[in-house]
Design a protein that fits this description.
The complex is a heterodimer of chains A (about 110) and B (about 110). With about 110 residues, chain A is mostly beta strands. Chain A has no helices and eleven strands. In chain B, about 0% of the residues lie in helices and about 55% in strands. Chain B has no helices and eleven strands. In chain B, the strands form two sheets. In chain B, strands 2, 4, 5, 9, 10 and 11 form a six-stranded mixed β-sheet that branches. A five-stranded antiparallel β-sheet of chain B has the order 1-3-8-7-6, with no helix packed on it. The termini of chain B are far apart. Classes of the chains: A mainly beta (about 110), B mainly beta (about 110). The interface between A and B is medium-sized, with 23 and 25 residues.
């Protein structure tokens, strides 16, 4: 089993719909992150969490929300999906800022 | 100016050749540096950390030049399996802030 698991792996949704992407990890890490990746752009941070009670906005948090349900679970929600949120979304965990980040396999989201 | 810049490529290189690419960063206070590899439609995976003294792992060598604010990755005796996108990552402080380059695409041809 993967250390970082994202569900769903692929999703097509309609404009205006609410959608949740889920992430769970077995690494035992406190730090979890949500990124989106668009062609020609680097990974951009949406939200990050250093522990269950700590949630922080990243550089592109507008239109997104998150929930850290447990140390191992961090979900990302699009309250009202729009087409420019079509992207590849990655969840990641790390044990610290100077240590390796482990990624889930990604969720390919298409908003039509 | 982007905080972390990479030549997007693609670099088309014959198998067995040596290839090198750089990554420039804008914040002189950056502390940690990494190279990740990303295969098409897959998640990024750590290739190597970049230390001030430079480091080598088999065919891969990473260097840091703080004066000119860039890191480099050298791949010797390239293999077909080295074809991927290489992402440069910079940590600007002791907090969360990992800044990702857009990646350099490498294609190794037989």
């Amino acid at each position: 089993d993967a250390d970082v698991t994202q569900t769903p792996r692929n999703r097509i949704t309609k404009t205006g719909k609410r959608i949740m992407l889920e992430c769970s990890q077995t690494k035992g890490h406190d730090r979890m992150y949500w990124y989106r990746q668009d062609p020609g752009l680097g990974l951009r941070l949406i939200y990050y969490s250093f522990d269950v009670k700590d949630i922080n906005k990243g550089e592109i948090s507008d239109g997104y929300s998150v929930s850290r349900q447990a140390q191992a679970k961090f979900s990302l929600s699009l309250e009202s999906a729009i087409p420019n949120q079509t992207a590849l979304y990655f969840c990641a965990t790390s044990g610290g800022s100077r240590t390796e980040a482990f990624f889930g396999q990604g969720t390919r989201l298409t908003v039509v | 100016r982007k905080e972390v810049e990479q030549d997007p490529g693609p670099f088309n290189v014959p198998e067995g050749a040596t290839v090198a690419f750089n990554c420039t960063y804008s914040n002189s206070a950056s502390q940690s540096f990494f190279w990740y590899r990303q295969d098409c439609r897959k998640e990024p995976k750590l290739l190597m950390s970049v230390y001030s003294s430079g480091n080598e792992d088999g065919r891969f060598t990473a260097q840091l030049n703080r004066a000119s604010q860039y890191i480099s990755l050298l791949i010797r005796d390239s293999k077909l399996s080295d074809s991927a996108t290489y992402l440069c990552v910079v940590n600007e402080n002791s907090n969360y802030q990992l800044i990702w380059g857009a990646g350099t695409k490498l294609i190794i041809k037989p």
